[in-house]
Specification:
The protein contains 17 helices and 14 strands. By secondary structure, it is of the alpha/beta class. It has 3 domains: 15-61 and 159-325, Rossmann fold, CATH 3.40.50.1100; 82-150, Rossmann fold, CATH 3.40.50.1100; 332-409, ACT domain (Alpha-Beta Plaits), CATH 3.30.70.260. This is Threonine dehydratase.
Length: 413
Amino acid sequence: MATQHAQTEALPVQIDDVVAAHARISDQIVRTPTLISRTLSDLTGATVYLKFENLQFTAAYKERGALNTLLQLSEAARSVGVIAASAGNHAQGLAFHANRLGIPATIVMPRNTPIVKVVQTQGHGATVILEGDTFDAAYAHARILEGERGLTFVHPFDDPRIIAGAGTVALEMLADVPQIDTLAVPIGGGGLISGMATVARAQSRLVEVVGVEAELFPSMYNRINGTDMPCAGDTLAEGIAVKEPGGITSRMVAELVDDIVLVSERSLEEAVSLLLQIEKTVVEGAGAAGLAALLAHPERFRGRTVGVVLCGGNIDTRLLANVLLRDLARSGRLARLRVRLQDQPGALFNVARIFEAERVNIIEVYHQRVFTTLPAKGLITDIECETRDRAHLDKLVAALRASGYEVAPVELA
């Protein structure tokens, strides 16, 4: 990992590149705020500043690198157009700014891309081609079209122009809050952290850079540490679910980044939920990874002044609802209790009276008579209910057991 005085002269992106990128793009992007979160600071033991990149027009920092790249194309390249392979924020950022600048854009997406992402990208004026069942297949097809049509391929992370554009995030953060001494940065392919670490290393004071990856996709962690953990699974942080980090970015991370930590799916869910509840801001799983690191590794950040990048806010609304409901369940405010009853008149009524006495709201009731290991005259009832907190739920369970009922909470994974 990096030392603070690393020799960076040979690296493909320097601080001057980031400063030039900021001058190039600053009047065409949102100068997003960097604000302190007093509640999250109290919760984590660090002084937490949030950079709201989810407030960009396409709700992600990816616009910065895409725009920086487009503005450096020759007139000939602009007239022919650009192409990219992406099903996420890179697609929308590139499509939006290409359309604004009058540059034709083609985006290749896997065939299983959610229709909402296809429609959003088309809405920004891009031509969308669905090809293959995986990102790798879409990427390969995009490179073929690049050659056939003479298009300019815009890589989502492994390009100096993309990296320099991403680094403008840190340039703004450290200008707005000079006291930040640690940056917690999500890592997918490594473009964002490479750019931000370039800026951090150019400061006259120590600014530590800590990368964050989902446990299910520790690709950069593997590359840097020589480990071989699997990269697979259905992560909430699909924006950083990258199996192979970039060649340029791997080299820059090895030279410039102090540490990489891994976060669980549960920590990611908790971070998404807290940001909505506390900061009233919608953040996708990848965008919440920095806060997830503070929650999962408090000793690593305690006492530090930490800049956290909320790098994107494009989360499916149904998935967000699920995350919030799961968080309510883990906190005891929402529960499903499995109660064994006798199959006779008034059995459910008598149970409901206990819920009423404890002032617990019943949401749903599920009766199960057939698919059960109980005798024919027994039945299982699952009751979904809403309580004030964990203590209130525990009091209800105690009251049910005191009345002679067998009861067990149905736990979340």
